[in-house]
Amino acid sequence: MSAYKTKDMGSALKKKGFKFHQSHHTFYVFYFNGKKTNIKTFISHGEKEYGDTLISAMKKQLHLSREEFDNLISCPLKEEKLIEIYLKQGLIE
User: Fold this and answer.
1) Range of the domain at 77
2) What is the CATH number of the domain that holds 18?
3) Would the pTM count as exceeding 0.70?
4) Distance of alpha carbon 40 from alpha carbon 92, whole angstroms
5) CA end-to-end distance (rounded Å), the chain
6) How many domains does the chain have?
7) Tens digits of per-residue pLDDT, 19-63?
């Protein structure tokens, strides 16, 4: 499959409704209607690029298929569609 630069992943997440919280990792939490949700992931400071293993873990944290995750990072998946996915899954109301 493909690999993604961590800075590109962070940038894509911020454009789709995620806010970052800094600690020993950079945490990204999804906000819906101005409220924090339980949908979150993190990007390690030590990694410059994520390969298949880390992407697999991240997509599970984000409750997305690999295709949805790829579209999230490469930007065809807009925030509105992401909200639809999460509403269908019952992760947000």
Assistant:
1) 4-89
2) 3.30.920.30
3) yes
4) 13
5) 33
6) 1
7) 998 877 789 999 999 999 999 998 887 778 898 899 999 999 999
